[in-house]
Sequence to fold (303 residues):
Amino acid sequence: MGEADEDVFGTISGVTPRELVAGAVEVASLPEVYHRVAEMIDSPRYSAADIGRVLEKDPGLTARLLRIANSAFYGFPSQIETVSRAITVIGTRELRELILATCVVRLFKGLPNDLVTMDDFWRHSIGCGLAARALAAQRGEHLKERHFVAGLLHDIGALIVYNKLPELAREALLRARHERQPIYLAERAVMGFDHGAVGCELMRKWKLPEHLQEAAAFHHEPERAPVDPRDVAVVHLADRIADLMGLGSSGEPLPEEDLAGDRAWDLAELDPGVVEAVTEDVDRRYEETLRLLAGDDAPPPLR
Fold:
């Protein structure tokens, strides 16, 4: 995901994805606690107790992380009462993914737009995240939280597009519906770029891992992903499963082609027969995960 990626897209809208993200002052940066914890996790100098002490400076974030650790999201048999214990049980890198997920939902929770409700958007995004996590489990992977976050954030660029270019976004949505065209193609025709490019640029600005940038940029076209099309295909399929389950909406029309015939199954190295097990897994965790990440009892955004 190099600097030249933006050159793929024109500037019909008069602005590039990078300029659009630079102007999104409401979501200019992730909270310092995320960057500090990420730095500590990447260093052998810090223990779980050290990381726990940093997290405990944000009581709201700490409380939410402990609620997630004790929820159906994990299904641990015994109560986890401290962050250091959560780190030990869940793992440092998996906890970092959960911190990222929590911070981003809080940052975007109040971002205004009139094209899709925040409730619908996060219902879809959380459904996609859970489906990606379940698909990764079907593939036998242990580090599933990275897939959850990739699914959760795959459409995040759409919120900036809706907020900063509402008229062009509305035109793209209408074009997609009337012409039965995928939203990303309609956006490119109307704006010169799509919401995936904006999401990728936001994650680049935030210095997030390349696999998250790539999932955002190519979730509609996983075969084009230059680094790891296999994992991007998981997000693509999870996106479709969330749509077919009727979990919220990102504003995009539902695809008409048969899910089982999607070529991304081969790319993801999965069989379409896992869909039933995946939907059951999503159903089991969905409402509680939605409440924990996007519920009205959420702490106020970090600024």
